[in-house]
Design brief:
single chain; about 0% strand; about 60% helix; mainly alpha
C-alpha cells in the first residue's frame, strides 16, 4: 500500500502531536486536514496588531535634531570643543532616526520580524534622551552672550532651545515605546483572550 505525501505528513503530525504542523498543513490546503480547534489557534499578543514598530520613530526628533545640528554647523563651532559633542550627538541621532524612519515607511520591519522592534526603539529613544540631556546642558553652558559675532550667539542659543525640545521629544518617544514594548494601551481586539476549554 502506497501512501501519498499528504497522508505521510498527516500521520507524522498526528503521531508526534505537532499541532503547529497540523495548522500549517491546514492553512496550505492539504487534503485530510480540518480546521484546528479554537484552543490550538494562535493567541494575539497584546500591542502587536502589526509585526512592526509601534509607535513609529519620532518625526519630531528628526526635525528638531536637524535644526540643532544645522544651527550649530552655521557657527564657528570648531573654536569651541563643547560644540563638537553637541554636533556628534545631534548628527548621529539624526542619521539613525532617519534610518529608522525609512525602515518604518518602507515597512522593512516586516521583513526582519525576528528583531523586537518595540524594544529596539525603546532602547534607542532612551539612549537618545540621555545623550540629548548632555548635549543640551553642554550647548546651553557654552553659549556666551559676549560672543564677538552676534549671530553666533543667536544660533547657539536657538540650538540650545531646540536641543531641549529634541530631548523632550525623545523622552516622550521613550515613554510611548515602553508602553508599546509592554503591550499597554492595546485595543480590546488584541488584549482579550477567551478560554473555551
Amino acid at each position: 500500500m502506497s501512501l501519498t505525501l499528504s497522508q505521510h505528513l498527516q500521520r507524522l503530525a498526528l503521531g508526534m502531536g505537532a499541532s503547529w504542523l497540523r495548522k500549517d498543513l491546514w492553512r496550505r490546503g492539504c487534503p485530510g486536514f480540518t480546521r484546528p480547534a479554537l484552543q490550538d489557534m494562535p493567541v494575539p499578543v497584546p500591542g502587536a496588531a502589526v509585526l512592526g514598530m509601534s509607535p513609529p520613530p519620532s518625526s519630531e526628533g528628526l526635525v528638531l535634531g536637524l535644526l540643532v545640528w544645522a544651527l550649530i554647523a552655521d557657527t564657528t563651532y570648531h573654536l569651541h570643543a563643547a560644540y563638537g559633542w553637541v554636533m556628534f550627538v545631534s548628527i548621529f541621532f539624526w542619521i539613525v532616526t532617519v534610518l529608522f524612519f525609512v525602515t518604518y515607511l518602507l515597512q522593512l520591519q516586516l521583513k526582519f520580524y525576528v528583531i523586537p522592534w518595540s524594544l529596539v526603539l525603546m532602547i534607542f529613544n532612551a539612549v537618545a534622551t540621555v545623550l540629548y540631556i548632555t548635549a543640551f546642558v553642554t550647548c546651553a553652558a557654552a553659549v556666551q552672550p559676549t560672543s564677538w559675532r552676534q549671530w553666533d550667539y543667536n544660533r547657539r542659543a536657538a540650538a540650545s532651545f531646540f536641543a531641549c525640545l529634541a530631548m523632550i521629544a525623545y523622552g516622550a518617544s521613550t515613554f510611548f515605546s515602553f508602553r508599546a514594548w509592554k503591550g499597554l494601551g492595546s485595543n480590546a481586539a488584541t488584549s482579550q483572550v477567551t478560554d473555551h476549554a
